[in-house]
Amino acid sequence: MKIVVDAFGGDNAPEEIVEGVKLALNKIKNLEIILCGNEEMLRNMIVGYESRIEIINADEIIKNEDHPTLAIRQKKNSSLVKAFDALKEREDVIGLVSAGSTGAILAGAIMKIGRIKGISRPALAPILPTKKESDVIIIDSGANVDCKPINLLHFALMGSAYYSIIYNCDNPKVALLNNGSEEGKGNELTKETYSLLKNAPINFIGNKEGGDFMTGEVDVMVADGFAGNALLKGTEGAVMAVMSILKHSIKSHFWSKIGYLFMKKTFKDIKNRVDILSKHAGSPLLGCKKLVVKNHGSCKRNNICSSIEQTVVLNEKKLINKIESALLNLNLEISNED
Amino acid sequence: MKIVVDAFGGDNAPEEIVEGVKLALNKIKNLEIILCGNEEMLRNMIVGYESRIEIINADEIIKNEDHPTLAIRQKKNSSLVKAFDALKEREDVIGLVSAGSTGAILAGAIMKIGRIKGISRPALAPILPTKKESDVIIIDSGANVDCKPINLLHFALMGSAYYSIIYNCDNPKVALLNNGSEEGKGNELTKETYSLLKNAPINFIGNKEGGDFMTGEVDVMVADGFAGNALLKGTEGAVMAVMSILKHSIKSHFWSKIGYLFMKKTFKDIKNRVDILSKHAGSPLLGCKKLVVKNHGSCKRNNICSSIEQTVVLNEKKLINKIESALLNLNLEISNED
């Protein structure tokens, strides 16, 4: 089983990327990795793993400032384009992992790999913790702005298929992000989307507000990429702000420092729960013909390892086939209604 | 100085509303209040304050389920419509405070009081804490969806005027909520809005993401009401989720409970900082010809008292005149450019 990894995407490349690859190789027996990037540098970093890592030389790097489409077209010798070429051309490569520019990954996926038939907009669906035991995903989290209702319907189907695989659950609760919970609330986009979701073959629980995101009531929150991004980033920012206020406050009182010693386990618990944000930093680009998993630019070795493990699971559980058949069911239902 | 209060708006009406009025009367010497609602009930509740409270009888109540515009037109004997009538007809009434339906307050303000010339969409601008000492406002937080760039420009001007009054600061930092910080990022709305804000007579610091909301870098976050609502509610929800995870975790470990005793002051600090959410629950409807301050439906007496105090300050510091002249400056600049 082969996965191709963009060794020069992200703020901590190539060190953290390569170390993440090694962690994954240690964990997964039959895994092999293709690393794309400067061969000379990489050669020195993979000592002891040569038999399971293939290197494809790539001397260019796509940066966040680069125009996504132009970069994919022009930087043919970049680590990301080389990785996409390998994913496209080699049948034994099951997926691609990169922590590079989101725009370039999206552009590369569409231009090099292509979309599942019927899906016009692939979407990102990161995972967040809730205050209960369950997690929640948001789709789309920023790849697509100015969406149409049909795009949001596809996000709902793809998100539901993805969630049901990663959490082994049959009917994830799908909600539409809105500025009010009643039917009829919302902007033009969400009002039209509501009726599409109501009739779709998913467990649609209606409109939910941003405040319901972390309550555990919702498994899959559907939104256009603009509002979804505001919700995702706002939530992450608020969690970090509260932790920062907490830390600052503990440091400024003598008794709190003493108390902290007693509460270490509690804080570790919280840190673990919140760390899911970074542990699951990987998010597949749902709607592509092959698995493309994007990591946060600031990700570390553990995130890369998790993303590789995730790619393996999504491949085993046939995510792409599931999305294709969800879409087929939808089209059948629509044509039956006609 | 007279303020009219809708005694029957909100989940905790009329008790908490009337108690909040009493708190404000105790604090502010030359204040007088007009209470709108069932006279018989209210009469029994204001014993000792009769000389400073006038009651206008109103037997109907506008509910959240009521259609806003229809409710204002048809429920002429409701506490909210009577309050708007008093604000409209009496020159000595400087403002209105209500914890009733947001939609009905917005509709009533537009239909009964009218908008400042040039402003097509009045907006709400609630306050949130940041992880530094400063607070941040978001405008619009949900009153207006499907906005045009000119609406967001007005939000920026009004938000800047409002922030500079309540925090006594000359050049509040105004940012545009976006899904990326670089110029050129965003959806159609924010791309067009960016150039308007860049040339406006405000301290525009560019695009900011949801994650920058609570960092203290931004004073006034400008957004359409849909994305603004997602950010606001998501942030509030995340803060509550973290506090809930914390509480749950403390309860489940023996040593944490001991540690909690040492850390009481720290937790109180945090609670105070987070409570600003509820303390400042009042948000003026910016862009109306007179002061209309909306409270959260679940608000308590302290929130009502704060809102009344806020109305007094906004009146003294001439918020409405400030917005009018900001708009005038803008129009002058635009016509000079022509």
> Largest interface, and how many residues on either side?
A-B, 62 and 62 residues
The geometry of chain A reads as globular
Structural class of chain A: alpha/beta
Number of helices of chain A: 12
What is the terminal separation of chain A in angstroms? 44 Å
Roughly what is the average pLDDT of chain A, rounded to an integer?
Answer: 91
Largest sheet features of chain A: 7 strands, mixed
Oligomer: homodimer
Write a brief caption for the model.
The structure is a homodimer of 338-residue chains. Chain A is an alpha/beta fold.
Structural overview:
2 copies of one chain form a homodimer. Chain A has 338 residues and is an alpha/beta fold. Chain A has 12 helices and 12 strands. In chain A, the strands form 2 sheets. Chain A has a 7-stranded mixed beta sheet, sandwiched between helices. In chain A, strand 8 (173-177), helix 7 and strand 9 form a beta-alpha-beta unit. In chain A, helix 3 (68-74) crosses helix 5 (102-113), helix 6 crosses helix 7 and helix 6 crosses helix 12. The longest helix of chain A is centred in the last third of the chain and has 27 residues, at 225-251. The first copy, chain A, is globular and about 60 Å long. The N and C termini of chain A lie far apart (44 Å). At the A-B interface, helix 8, helix 9 and helix 10 of A face helix 8, helix 9 and helix 10 of B.
